[in-house]
Amino acid sequence: MSVLRIARLKLLCVVLAGVALLGVASPPTATAQDVFTAEQSEAIGAEVRRYILDHPEVIIEAMRVLEERRRLEDEDRRRQVMERLGDEIRNDGYSFVGGNPDGDITMVEFSDYRCGYCKRAHPQVRQLLKDDPNIRYVIKEFPILGPDSVLAAKAALAALEQDDGEHYFAFNDALMTQGGAMSKEMILRTAARVGLDADDLDEAMEDPELQARIDRTYALAEQLGISGTPSFIIGEQIVPGYVEASTMAQIVAQQRAIAAN
Question: Which domain holds residue 99?
């Protein structure tokens, strides 16, 4: 093996090791001593050190390559998870389905009634559904902000069981636009205001099946890497955080174009 060839191999090892020290990749398992003699290692190491000091941009370039590779690997893993969990995401059998149930694009929202960003996103979602009548909209009750959030989520799920879910959308709207604490008394007053039977709702909220459904949503979110609210799945794309209606519309258009190809 030529000295130049050895130097190139050594350089690659050192660069990867340097990147690993910065937290981007795991260090190589093989060391220079496993491949080179002590004399070769010392001579080549000095040359490599000089090269890196003269060209520090190679470490930055390697980091960028590794970050992009990881991003693509993460996207591929997430895509596989979404393919495997497609029915659970879009047709779990207990989450609200609105908009156009026969729409060509499904948008799923993971939301919490106590989440400030969910409340901000709420009118944006409603505007999108108004502007685009061909979106199938699924709401995942994803209470992550404490017991009051869980209480509100159970009330919403219980509302779906009354009158074939006729009042759910109005109830969801009222809870999302409601200020102040999310107490049980407030939830039941809000339920009565939108036409629900508050007494029946109060009783239905004790059904352990509602917690089981919430737990299923927790498990689904974990597998998808979703940890915050609001989070959206538009078509096949996961969109974390608050987004405006115009941005949602752009993603919908992109997903339609992808589906058409």
Answer: 86-260
